[in-house]
Structures are given as C-alpha cells and as structure tokens.
Specification:
Blueprint lengths: L1 E5 L6 H11 L2 E4 L9 H6 L1 H23 L5 E5 L2 H13 L5 H17 L5 E6 L2 H11 L9 H16 L7 E5 L6 H12 L2
Parallel strand pairs: 1-3, 1-4, 2-3, 4-5
Helix pairs in contact: 1-8, 3-4, 3-5, 4-5, 4-7
Length: 196
C-alpha cells in the first residue's frame, strides 16, 4: 500500500512521516529538500527557476515511486505526483511559469503520470495559512528565507481546489492540522480509509 502525506511547505508532513515511520512497518520516502540544488535559487529568483525546479521534483518523485513499487507492505511518501502538480499550478497562476512553460511541465507530468505508481491513499494535512506561515518562519530553513507569503497562500488554495475535486479513483482525506495530532490518531484515520 502506498500512502502519500500532502500539504503546504511547513505544515508538518516530514515530522508526521517520521513519527508514522516509528509506529508503522513501512518504507519512508521523503521529499528531496537537502539535496535539491534548485531550491535556494528558486526562492531567490522563482520566475527563472520555476520550470527547472518543478521538473526536477517531478522526476524524482516518479523515480522514488518506481524504486519502491516492488516493496511489500506500506510505503509512506512525503508528497506525491499530484502534490507536485499543485505546486506547478500555483507557480503558473502566480506568473512564475508562463503559459508555454506550464504546457511543457504539464505534458511531462501527464506522460509520467501514465507510468507512475500512484498512492492508494492521499492524506492532506489541512491548516490555516497563518498557522502554516508561522511554522515556515519558525523552522528557519535557509533555502526558504526568500519564500514569499503569496506563494504559500497560492499553494494552499491549489490544495483546497484539488481536494474539492480529486482525480477519479483517488482515495483522499483531509485532517485538521492547525494543531499537531498524535501519529497514532492518524493511523486510525488511515485504517478507516483502507477498510472502505
């Protein structure tokens, strides 16, 4: 079973994934942050690096999903291909990717989606924009110092749009993440959805 944890930067995905990894017998697939060689440049000059950054993240997610596809049991992904497209939509709507660049990104996304191992369950950590912004500021990552609030707000809007109308066949659920919840509570949410 493939489970993807989704949410805006700073909401608490990586922390929750690590906690779930301690109580579930699973393979943890984390988002490439520390070795993302576009991240700092992207936040400093997003219109220059948006397409390159999104293609880099998208291809890594496909590679990670393929690398773990043969594993038995649970794989826990810190973001999915669908989550990646949410970011692509946000940067396009902000004008950081023009129509031609987004068309290229979307063509690559759709081609990879046909071959991808998609999650069986998508869990969205929903939190208010002010809460998420405070968390981003508190974690004080060097690469995120240039992140504008507008970007975070747009990503959150795109997540809400996605979860109002998820792709056909996607099993999605949202949990209120304005306050952190114990990982064991999240396991119960996931178990409830696997029985449906």
């Amino acid at each position: 079973m493939r489970i993807a944890i989704e949410g805006a930067p700073g909401v608490g995905k990586s922390t929750l994934c690590a906690q779930l990894g301690e109580i579930l017998p699973c393979q943890l697939v984390t988002e490439p942050v520390d070795d993302n060689y576009y991240l700092s440049d992207y936040y400093l000059n997003p219109s220059r690096w948006a397409l390159a950054m999104q293609i880099e993240l998208l291809t890594r997610r496909v590679q990670d999903a393929a690398r773990t596809s043969h594993l038995a049991g649970i794989t826990l992904h810190d973001r999915s291909l669908w989550g990646d497209r949410i970011f692509g939509m946000a940067v396009h709507q902000m004008g950081l990717m023009d129509a031609r660049e987004f068309k290229t990104y979307d063509r690559v996304f759709r081609a990879l989606l046909e071959k991808a191992y998609l999650p069986d369950i998508v869990l969205y950590l929903r939190a208010d924009p002010d809460v998420v912004w405070e968390r981003v500021q508190a974690r004080d990552r060097a690469a995120e110092k240039g992140m504008p609030r507008e970007y975070l707000d747009k990503v959150l809007q795109e997540y809400e749009r996605f979860f109002e109308d998820p792709p056909i066949g996607a099993v999605v659920t949202a949990v209120d993440w304005n306050e952190y919840r114990p990982a064991k509570d999240v396991v119960q949410v996931l178990l409830h959805h696997t029985k449906q």
